[in-house]
Each structure stands twice: as C-alpha cells, then as structure tokens.
Amino acid sequence: MGRMERIWGKDCREYKPERWLRDGHYTSESAYKFTAFNGGPRLCLGKDFAYYQMKVVAASIIYRYRVKVVENHVVKPKFAVTMYMKYGLKVTLSKRDDTELAPA
C-alpha cells in the first residue's frame, strides 16, 4: 500500500519526503494509508518507540559527523515489503570539530 498509485498519486514510486509537509510543518498521514505499523485497535505497540529510537540515532550521527553521499554513487530505492536502497547508500562520514559541537 505504501506505493499504490491510487493512494499516493502518479509519483508514488518517487522518494519525496515533502509529501508529509504542509505549509512547512510535518503532517502525519492516516495509519490506514501507511500500514507499516498497522492501524486502529491493532496499532503496533512499538511504533512510538521505533520512531523515537530512529530520531535519536539520526540526530546523534548528524550531531557528531558530516554525512556526504559518495560522489557518482547511484541512489535508487529498491521496492520490496520494506523499501531500501538498491545499491546501498554509500556515504563518507567526517567527524565534526569540537568547535562545531559546542552549543550556541
């Protein structure tokens, strides 16, 4: 359902995070429209924890490192039950300076 044209539109197979932005603010979709965690009374108990954990890990990496996609690496999603990168996502990480980590 996550890539059905009648639900998401003609560009359903394109990676477009802006789908969830309305007037510059994140807007969630119905749990019945994106069923990775199911919906209604059978909503996954671990959904909120999974989102929280993902945000903490992403924030920790971005805070400590500069993340840059390797030059000339093809970034193409592979469509399966869970979407992942067809050729992986090759990146280089470079540690940020201590001066960049200090709070403003």
UniProtKB/TrEMBL annotation:
Q: Look up keyword Magnesium and say if it applies.
A: no
Annotated keywords? Heme, Iron, Metal-binding, Monooxygenase, Oxidoreductase
Tell me the domain of life: Eukaryota
**Transmembrane helix in keyword set:** no
What InterPro entries does the entry give? Cyt_P450 (IPR001128), Cyt_P450_CS (IPR017972), Cyt_P450_sf (IPR036396)
Question: Which SUPFAM superfamilies does this UniProt record tie to the protein?
Answer: Cytochrome P450
Q: Tell me the Gene Ontology biological-process terms attached to this UniProt entry.
A: isoquinoline alkaloid biosynthetic process; lipid metabolic process
The parts of the chain that form a coiled coil are none
Any idea which GO molecular function terms this record carries?
heme binding; iron ion binding; monooxygenase activity; oxidoreductase activity, acting on paired donors, with incorporation or reduction of molecular oxygen
Per the record, the similarity remark reads: Belongs to the cytochrome P450 family.
> What is this protein called in UniProt?
Cytochrome P450
Species name: Macleaya cordata (Five-seeded plume-poppy)
